[in-house]
Write a structure and sequence with these properties.
Length: 224
Amino acid sequence: MEIIQSKKIMVLISKILFFFSHHGFYATIIFFLFFGIISAITKKLFWLIFIIPLSIANAFAGQFLNAWFLNKYGTESIAIITSDTETNSTLNDAPIHDYKAIVQKQDNRFVETFFSTMSASIYPITNEIRIPSVNEKFPVKYIPGYEKNIVILYNQTREGIARLRYEKLAPVNEAKIKYEAEPTNTEFLEEYISAMENYTKVYPDAEKTVKIFELKKELQDLKK
Protein backbone atom coordinates (compact mmCIF):
# COMPACT_ATOMS: atom_id res chain seq x y z
CA MET A 1 0.00 0.00 0.00
CA GLU A 2 2.80 2.40 0.90
CA ILE A 3 4.55 1.65 -2.40
CA ILE A 4 1.35 2.37 -4.34
CA GLN A 5 0.84 5.63 -2.47
CA SER A 6 4.47 6.60 -3.09
CA LYS A 7 4.05 5.98 -6.83
CA LYS A 8 0.89 8.09 -6.87
CA ILE A 9 2.72 10.93 -5.13
CA MET A 10 5.58 10.77 -7.65
CA VAL A 11 3.11 10.83 -10.55
CA LEU A 12 1.31 13.80 -8.99
CA ILE A 13 4.57 15.71 -8.57
CA SER A 14 5.51 14.92 -12.17
CA LYS A 15 2.14 16.21 -13.41
CA ILE A 16 2.50 19.42 -11.42
CA LEU A 17 6.04 20.04 -12.67
CA PHE A 18 4.97 19.30 -16.25
CA PHE A 19 2.13 21.81 -16.01
CA PHE A 20 4.23 24.58 -14.50
CA SER A 21 7.19 24.06 -16.86
CA HIS A 22 5.05 23.78 -20.02
CA HIS A 23 2.29 26.30 -19.27
CA GLY A 24 3.94 29.41 -17.85
CA PHE A 25 1.02 31.73 -18.63
CA TYR A 26 -1.54 29.55 -16.85
CA ALA A 27 0.89 29.08 -13.97
CA THR A 28 0.98 32.86 -13.51
CA ILE A 29 -2.83 32.96 -13.41
CA ILE A 30 -2.80 30.25 -10.73
CA PHE A 31 -0.30 32.26 -8.69
CA PHE A 32 -2.58 35.32 -8.94
CA LEU A 33 -5.63 33.34 -7.86
CA PHE A 34 -3.87 31.42 -5.07
CA PHE A 35 -2.16 34.36 -3.41
CA GLY A 36 -5.14 36.63 -4.15
CA ILE A 37 -7.42 34.27 -2.22
CA ILE A 38 -4.95 33.98 0.65
CA SER A 39 -4.61 37.76 0.75
CA ALA A 40 -8.40 38.17 0.84
CA ILE A 41 -8.83 35.56 3.58
CA THR A 42 -6.04 36.91 5.78
CA LYS A 43 -6.74 40.53 4.77
CA LYS A 44 -3.02 41.04 4.26
CA LEU A 45 -1.65 42.44 0.99
CA PHE A 46 1.74 40.99 1.92
CA TRP A 47 0.92 37.73 0.12
CA LEU A 48 0.60 39.47 -3.24
CA ILE A 49 4.33 40.22 -3.39
CA PHE A 50 5.02 36.52 -4.09
CA ILE A 51 3.15 36.50 -7.41
CA ILE A 52 5.68 38.24 -9.68
CA PRO A 53 8.86 36.60 -8.28
CA LEU A 54 7.33 33.11 -8.49
CA SER A 55 6.06 33.74 -12.03
CA ILE A 56 9.51 34.91 -13.15
CA ALA A 57 11.25 32.03 -11.36
CA ASN A 58 8.91 29.51 -12.97
CA ALA A 59 9.44 31.01 -16.43
CA PHE A 60 13.23 30.78 -16.18
CA ALA A 61 13.77 27.76 -13.93
CA GLY A 62 10.65 25.60 -14.12
CA GLN A 63 12.19 23.23 -16.66
CA PHE A 64 15.41 23.02 -14.61
CA LEU A 65 13.54 21.83 -11.53
CA ASN A 66 11.63 19.37 -13.69
CA ALA A 67 14.87 18.08 -15.22
CA TRP A 68 16.46 17.57 -11.80
CA PHE A 69 13.42 15.74 -10.44
CA LEU A 70 13.02 13.41 -13.41
CA ASN A 71 16.74 12.60 -13.61
CA LYS A 72 16.89 11.76 -9.89
CA TYR A 73 13.68 9.76 -9.56
CA GLY A 74 12.73 8.79 -13.12
CA THR A 75 12.96 5.55 -15.06
CA GLU A 76 15.12 5.48 -18.18
CA SER A 77 13.59 4.81 -21.60
CA ILE A 78 13.74 6.14 -25.16
CA ALA A 79 11.85 8.77 -27.12
CA ILE A 80 11.67 9.91 -30.74
CA ILE A 81 10.88 13.43 -31.96
CA THR A 82 8.22 13.19 -34.65
CA SER A 83 7.75 16.87 -35.48
CA ASP A 84 9.86 20.04 -35.32
CA THR A 85 8.00 23.27 -36.11
CA GLU A 86 9.63 26.68 -36.15
CA THR A 87 7.44 29.36 -34.53
CA ASN A 88 7.35 33.14 -35.01
CA SER A 89 8.69 33.70 -31.49
CA THR A 90 12.39 34.04 -30.72
CA LEU A 91 14.78 33.40 -27.83
CA ASN A 92 18.13 35.23 -27.94
CA ASP A 93 17.42 36.07 -31.61
CA ALA A 94 16.95 32.37 -32.45
CA PRO A 95 13.53 30.96 -33.44
CA ILE A 96 11.62 29.00 -30.81
CA HIS A 97 10.60 25.53 -31.97
CA ASP A 98 7.61 23.41 -31.01
CA TYR A 99 8.26 19.67 -30.84
CA LYS A 100 6.09 16.59 -30.82
CA ALA A 101 7.51 13.25 -29.68
CA ILE A 102 6.61 9.70 -28.72
CA VAL A 103 7.90 8.03 -25.55
CA GLN A 104 8.28 4.31 -24.98
CA LYS A 105 6.52 3.09 -21.83
CA GLN A 106 7.56 0.12 -19.71
CA ASP A 107 5.20 -2.14 -21.68
CA ASN A 108 7.07 -1.09 -24.87
CA ARG A 109 4.07 0.83 -26.21
CA PHE A 110 4.48 4.51 -27.10
CA VAL A 111 2.66 7.57 -25.80
CA GLU A 112 2.67 11.05 -27.37
CA THR A 113 4.04 14.15 -25.73
CA PHE A 114 5.11 17.69 -26.62
CA PHE A 115 7.51 20.43 -25.57
CA SER A 116 9.13 23.55 -26.97
CA THR A 117 12.52 25.21 -26.94
CA MET A 118 11.35 27.11 -23.84
CA SER A 119 9.89 24.17 -21.92
CA ALA A 120 12.20 21.25 -22.78
CA SER A 121 13.77 19.61 -19.73
CA ILE A 122 17.37 18.58 -20.43
CA TYR A 123 19.98 16.95 -18.22
CA PRO A 124 22.76 17.82 -17.39
CA ILE A 125 21.30 21.23 -16.56
CA THR A 126 22.97 24.00 -18.57
CA ASN A 127 21.99 27.30 -20.18
CA GLU A 128 22.28 25.68 -23.60
CA ILE A 129 19.20 24.17 -25.24
CA ARG A 130 20.16 20.98 -27.06
CA ILE A 131 17.38 19.03 -28.74
CA PRO A 132 17.96 15.75 -30.67
CA SER A 133 17.10 15.53 -34.35
CA VAL A 134 13.76 14.37 -35.74
CA ASN A 135 13.33 10.59 -36.12
CA GLU A 136 16.32 9.79 -33.91
CA LYS A 137 15.97 7.61 -30.82
CA PHE A 138 17.36 9.27 -27.71
CA PRO A 139 17.42 8.40 -23.98
CA VAL A 140 14.98 10.01 -21.58
CA LYS A 141 13.68 9.53 -18.05
CA TYR A 142 10.10 9.75 -16.79
CA ILE A 143 7.96 8.76 -13.83
CA PRO A 144 6.04 5.56 -14.74
CA GLY A 145 2.37 6.46 -14.90
CA TYR A 146 2.98 9.87 -16.47
CA GLU A 147 5.32 9.18 -19.37
CA LYS A 148 4.58 12.40 -21.26
CA ASN A 149 6.75 14.37 -18.83
CA ILE A 150 10.32 13.58 -19.90
CA VAL A 151 13.85 14.81 -19.35
CA ILE A 152 16.26 14.45 -22.28
CA LEU A 153 19.53 12.79 -21.23
CA TYR A 154 21.59 14.82 -23.67
CA ASN A 155 25.03 13.42 -22.87
CA GLN A 156 23.76 9.97 -23.86
CA THR A 157 22.38 11.11 -27.24
CA ARG A 158 24.40 10.73 -30.45
CA GLU A 159 25.09 14.48 -30.54
CA GLY A 160 25.91 14.56 -26.83
CA ILE A 161 28.41 11.70 -27.05
CA ALA A 162 30.13 13.36 -30.03
CA ARG A 163 30.21 16.71 -28.24
CA LEU A 164 31.76 15.23 -25.09
CA ARG A 165 34.42 13.49 -27.16
CA TYR A 166 35.20 16.71 -29.03
CA GLU A 167 35.49 18.64 -25.75
CA LYS A 168 37.83 15.98 -24.34
CA LEU A 169 39.94 16.12 -27.51
CA ALA A 170 40.31 19.93 -27.42
CA PRO A 171 43.18 19.94 -24.84
CA VAL A 172 44.98 17.31 -26.93
CA ASN A 173 44.79 19.46 -30.04
CA GLU A 174 45.94 22.54 -28.15
CA ALA A 175 48.90 20.71 -26.63
CA LYS A 176 49.78 19.23 -30.02
CA ILE A 177 50.00 22.69 -31.60
CA LYS A 178 52.38 23.85 -28.87
CA TYR A 179 54.51 20.72 -29.21
CA GLU A 180 54.73 20.97 -33.01
CA ALA A 181 55.74 24.63 -32.73
CA GLU A 182 58.68 23.70 -30.45
CA PRO A 183 59.27 19.93 -30.19
CA THR A 184 62.28 20.37 -27.91
CA ASN A 185 60.31 22.26 -25.24
CA THR A 186 59.94 19.73 -22.41
CA GLU A 187 57.00 21.59 -20.83
CA PHE A 188 55.04 21.45 -24.08
CA LEU A 189 55.96 17.79 -24.51
CA GLU A 190 54.83 16.90 -20.97
CA GLU A 191 51.57 18.79 -21.50
CA TYR A 192 50.96 16.90 -24.75
CA ILE A 193 51.63 13.53 -23.08
CA SER A 194 49.34 14.38 -20.14
CA ALA A 195 46.51 15.50 -22.45
CA MET A 196 46.83 12.34 -24.53
CA GLU A 197 46.80 10.12 -21.43
CA ASN A 198 43.69 11.86 -20.06
CA TYR A 199 41.94 11.37 -23.39
CA THR A 200 42.82 7.67 -23.77
CA LYS A 201 41.61 6.93 -20.23
CA VAL A 202 38.11 7.82 -21.39
CA TYR A 203 38.43 6.92 -25.08
CA PRO A 204 40.92 4.06 -25.60
CA ASP A 205 42.82 4.54 -28.85
CA ALA A 206 45.61 2.20 -29.96
CA GLU A 207 47.17 4.79 -32.27
CA LYS A 208 47.29 7.43 -29.54
CA THR A 209 48.67 4.88 -27.06
CA VAL A 210 51.58 4.20 -29.42
CA LYS A 211 52.07 7.96 -29.84
CA ILE A 212 52.22 8.42 -26.07
CA PHE A 213 54.98 5.79 -25.86
CA GLU A 214 56.96 7.60 -28.58
CA LEU A 215 56.49 10.98 -26.90
CA LYS A 216 57.69 9.63 -23.56
CA LYS A 217 60.82 8.30 -25.26
CA GLU A 218 61.40 11.74 -26.80
CA LEU A 219 60.99 13.31 -23.36
CA GLN A 220 63.53 10.94 -21.83
CA ASP A 221 66.04 11.71 -24.60
CA LEU A 222 65.60 15.47 -24.10
CA LYS A 223 66.16 15.20 -20.36
CA LYS A 224 69.42 13.24 -20.71
